[in-house]
Amino acid sequence: AVAGMSSYSASKYALESFSDCLRREMFHWGLKVSIIEPGFMRTPLIERLVKPYPEFLTSLSNDVQERWGEEYLKGWHDKMEQNQLTKLADDPLKVVQVIQNAVMNTVPQIRYRPGMQSPLIFLPISILPAWIADSILRKLM
After folding, report:
1. What is the pLDDT of residues 33-60, one digit of tens each?
2. Is 8 an active-site residue?
3. Residue span of the signal peptide, if any (predicted)?
C-alpha cells in the first residue's frame, strides 16, 4: 500500500480477502475464483493526476479544494507528477487481456499480475520486511 491511497488500498485488501475466502468456499462446486492484481494503469484517474496543475485543480470540486487547501494540493500534485509508478503506468488493456484469459481458461490462475509493476515491483516488495518496503515505496513515490 502506498501513501496517499489509504481508502483505495483498504478496499483492495478487502476485495482480495473476500476473493480468497470465496475461492475456498466455491472449491467444492468446482467454481474458480481469480484475483487480478495490476500495478498502476494509465486510467483516467492516473491521467488526471499528471495533468498540468491548473487543469488538475479545476477537475476537483470546490469542496475538495477548500478542505485540502491549495498548498497541500499543489505539493501532492507535484509529487504525483514525479512519481515513478505514475510515470511507468501500464496500458489498461493488459488487465482486460488477463480477465479474458481467466474467464476463458478451464484452469485459471489464482492470481494474475498484469503489467510490469505488479510482478517486478509490488510482489517483491510484499515479501520484504516492512521497514525496507517503506523505504523503497517512499523513494518510488
Report:
1. 999 999 888 888 787 777 788 888 888 8
2. yes
3. none
